[in-house]
User: Fold these one by one.
Assistant:
Number 1:
Amino acid sequence: DGGITQSPKYLFRKEGQNVTLSCEQNLNHDAMYWYRQDPGQGLRLIYYSQIVNDFQKGDIAEGYSVSREKKESFPLTVTSAQKNPTAFYLCASSPRDRGNEQFFGPGTRLTVL
Amino acid sequence: SQQGEEDPQALSIQEGENATMNCSYKTSINNLQWYRQNSGRGLVHLILIRSNEREKHSGRLRVTLDTSKKSSSLLITASRAADTASYFCATINTGTASKLTFGTGTRLQVTL
C-alpha cells in the first residue's frame, strides 16, 4: 500500500526542547517537502529536497532543520530557536514528471507547552 | 510568502447546488493546482491546469484559468455533503520549478 506516512499524529513538547517529526514515503518520489499550517491559513513551505543529500530552504526555514539521507525519508527537526512552533506540520512528495503534483501525508499536530 | 488568495473565504450551500471558488495570484505561473483538505487531514490533489490551458474538467470539477487576469476558478457541480472541506489553489511560479505556493483557502460547507 503506497503512500506517505507521518508520525506521530499528535506530539506534545515542553518549550525549549527540540523535536523531530518523521516523514516516510514509498512512492519512489524524488522530491519531498515540509509545510507548516496555522489555524485558518494556507500552507507555508519550510524546507524541500529534490534529491538525496540535498535540500533547500523554503519561505520560513528559521528555527527548523532537515536531512535527506535516504530517498524515502525526510525528517524535520523543530528546534528551540523556533519562536512559535505550535502548528500542524504536513509532509509531501512529488514525482519528477507530474507538473509537481504533490502527495501529502496525514500531518502531525505539534503542541509546545 | 503566499501568492494566491481565494475568494470567498467561506461558502455555505445546500446539497445539489453548485459551488464556485476563485483564486487570484500575483506572478507568472507554469501551472495552477487545486487541492482539498478535510479538517485536520492532509491535502488531496484535485486537478492541475497548465498556463497554456484555459479550462479543464474532472468528474464534477471544472477549473478555468485566465492568465491575463491572473485568476482561476473551481466549480463543483451538484455538490454533496461529502464535499465539505477546505479548498486551496497553489501555483508553480515561473522559475521555481519545484515549489508550490499556496493560497489561503476557501472553507466550503455543504448542508443537507
Number 2:
Amino acid sequence: QKEVEQNSGPLSVPEGAIASLNCTYSDRGSQSFFWYRQYSGKSPELIMSIYSNGDKEDGRFTAQLNKASQYVSLLIRDSQPSDSATYLCAVTRIGFQKLVFGTGTRLLVSP
Amino acid sequence: GAVVSQHPSRVICKSGTSVKIECRSLDFQATTMFWYRQFPKKSLMLMATSNEGSKATYEQGVEKDKFLINHASLTLSTLTVTSAHPEDSSFYICSAAGQQGGEQFFGPGTRLTVL
C-alpha cells in the first residue's frame, strides 16, 4: 500500500464546474497535509495547507480533512482552463519534515 | 506564500564538469531545505534534506559524493553535481521550510542538460 494515494486521472471537468480531487494516506501519524499544483515543466506551487479536521476555504479552493477516514480532498469551484494541471497531495508525519507525495491527479478543464 | 529562488534556471554543460545550483529563501529563514529531482512525466524524487550548519541527509540510492549539498545559511543552500554525466540531465528543484511540519515552498527549478 502506498503511503499517499491519488487517482492519476485525467479528471475532466467543463469550465465553471466543481472539480473534486481526492487523496488517501496510510500513516495515522500524519500531521500536516498539503495540496500543490504543478504545471507541465514547472515546479510545484503550494495551493492549500490543512492541519485539523474539517474544511478550509481559500478563494475558489476548499481543502477537506478527515483524519478518522484518512483522506484529504481539494475542491475547486468555478473551474477554469487555467486550472488544468497536475495536483499533488502531500503529507508530513509527526516529527518529520519530509513531504510524502502522492503520484498526482491530472486535471483537465475544458472551455 | 513565501518566495524561493533558484539560479541558474537552465544550464547546459559538458560531460565531466561540475555544476552548482543555488537555492535561496528570499523572505523567510529556512531551517530546512530539500533537493528534488524530476524526470519528464515522473514524480518528484527527494534527493536530500539539509539543515543549516549541518550535513545533509541523503535518500537511499543518492550518491553523496556526486551530489554535494551545502546549507551555508538560513537563506542559502547549494547543490553541486560533480563530474556530471548525460544521465544526470534532469529538472532539479529545491524547497524550503521555515518550521517542522510547516509549509514547504518550492523554487522554480533548474533544468540541467549534460552533453
